[in-house]
Amino acid sequence: MLRESYVQVVAELDAFKASGRLPNFTQLAENLRDLDISSATLASIYRQTIQYYVTKNHHLLKRDMPKLCSRYLAGMDVLTISVDTGFSACIVMRRLLEECPIRIQKQAISEMLKEPSAIWEVAEIQEEHRGLANRLEVDVARCNAADLVYSPDAAAHRHDAGLEYEDKLYKYLHEAGISFWTEDSLRSQGSVKTPDAKLQVPIAVNGIVIHWIDSKATFGDEISYRQHLEEQFQKYINRFGSGMTTHGLKNRWSWLCNEPHCLPVSEHSGVTGPSAAWLQCHQGVKRLNLKD
Fold first, then answer.
1. How far is CA 267 from CA 187, 196, 237, 264, 270, in A?
2. Of the candidates 109, 93, 76, 218, which has an alpha carbon nearest to the alpha carbon of residue 145?
3. CA gyration radius for the chain?
4. In the chain, beta strands by DSSP E
């Protein structure tokens, strides 16, 4: 994807966030069909932009929670607070549960976010707070339904997607006849920070020696790339040498752009991103060989 296309997509998604409406990614993909972007890619970009905002501004939400909690107790709707602050509904609800007069242990809040009715089991509710408890139970369920990023269902989906694309990577490598150690086998050997696949014999991809491959079930934008480079990839490079990362979304492989200046390239970072030469579709890895 070209940079200008990415900027256009983010602008479209920001309009949904500002209005408080949930995007219809299928319809949006149709509206942006000239960009040839799948609904899964749009959903991933949407989640990432939300996560970046939360990471950057979460301290402001914590600072304002006493005031926001007072507004909620005075009758303001939690989803209105979510839209006004720009934070995902479940993030706002978690902070409200920490701040509200009904005292709930932090570890119990996570349980309540998964099962709203648990409030009657995890909190000691005085008679004057029973109305508030009823409201919180309903609003937790509403927040879960309105949050595509931080709800328990969204977290479970991300976990499952990560496992799915890790399995797909292993399948493709097997079909390509490339021997490798899995993440689990590396950990059994004592490694702590490990990529999804460590190649037993390095391969060459577009003239770059690849010792390892890590699969990400997300869109590969610049911010996430640099975060992964700092938190994960640099450790792999130091231990195993140069490698590559794949970004799989549903039935397509996706990356930020194919312009050399947009993503750090291997001679600078030791990591190469997906290449249209061999990872454009499900058959991509089958073409992996020393002649590529």
1. 28, 22, 12, 8, 6
2. 93
3. 22
4. 180-182, 197-205, 208-216, 243-249, 252-253, 271-272
Beta bridge partners of 253: 248
User: Coil, helix or strand for 261?
Assistant: coil
DSSP for 90-119, please give it.
Answer: HHHHHHHHHHSSS---HHHHHHHHH-GGGH
Whole-angstrom distance, CA of residue 263 vs CA of residue 276: 14
Whole-number pLDDT of residue 248: 63
Token pair 């509710």: residue? 125
Q: Tell me the DSSP string of 36-67.
A: ---HHHHHHHHHHHHHHHHHHHHHHHHHHHHH
Kindly list the domain boundaries of the chain, sorted by start residue. 3-148, 155-287
- Cβ neighbours of residue 252 under 8 Å, at least 6 residues apart? 38, 40, 41, 281
Determine the straight-line distance between the first and last CA of the chain, rounded to whole angstroms. Answer: 22
The pTM of the full predicted model, rounded to 2 decimals, is 0.77
From 75, 83, 106, 93, select the one nearest 141 (Cα to Cα).
Answer: 93
Mean residue pLDDT across the chain:
81
pLDDT digits (tens, 9 = 90+) for 22-79: 888 999 989 988 888 888 889 989 999 999 999 999 999 999 999 999 999 999 999 9
Q: Would you call 271 helix, strand, or coil by DSSP? A: strand
Amino acid, res. 204: A
